[in-house]
Amino acid sequence: MASYKLLLIAIPVVAVLFMDFSIAFAQGQGEQAGQTGQYIYGRVEIWALFYRLMVIAFVIGAILMGVIFYVVYRFRESHPKNRNLPVRSTEGEHH
């Protein structure tokens, strides 16, 4: 169970770190671009960042949908392990 929690935490962290490294490399290229005559267009970089983040969002969304489907399917009322459970009477009990 702890490995699932670690995995669910690690996926977004790795995605954010990947984004940070790619932005840092893009900034480094911008400093060198002045020397070579190439320019980095901010509009293009913003859209590239948007698309990367959308891909990450879709992957995380797909993982969450899979986890929710598993939980709903596993703990449904008609699951064989949930049949024939002893029924406790709560009449007369005070809590």
Describe the structure.
The structure is a single chain. With 95 residues, the chain is mainly alpha-helical. The chain has one domain. 72% of the residues lie in helices and 0% in strands. It has helices spanning 2-36, 42-74. Helix 1 (2-36) runs antiparallel to helix 2 (42-74). The longest helix is centred in the first third of the chain and has 35 residues, at 2-36.
Key words describing this protein structure:
95 residues; 2 helices; 72% helix
> What structural category arises from helix and sheet content?
mainly alpha
Largest sheet: none
**How much helix is in the residues?**
over 70%
The general outline is rod-shaped
**Mind telling me the C-alpha Rg?**
25 Å
By DSSP, the count of extended strands is 0
SSE order, as H and E?
A: HH
Task: Look at the structure and give the mean pLDDT.
Answer: 76
- Total number of helical segments? 2
Count of separate structural domains: 1
Query: pLDDT below 50 for ≥5 consecutive residues: which ranges?
Result: none
Distance between the termini: 32 Å
Percentage beta strand: under 5%
Transmembrane segments: 50-73
Organism: Candidatus Nitrososphaera evergladensis SR1
Protein name: Heme/copper-type cytochrome/quinol oxidase, subunit
Subcellular location: Membrane
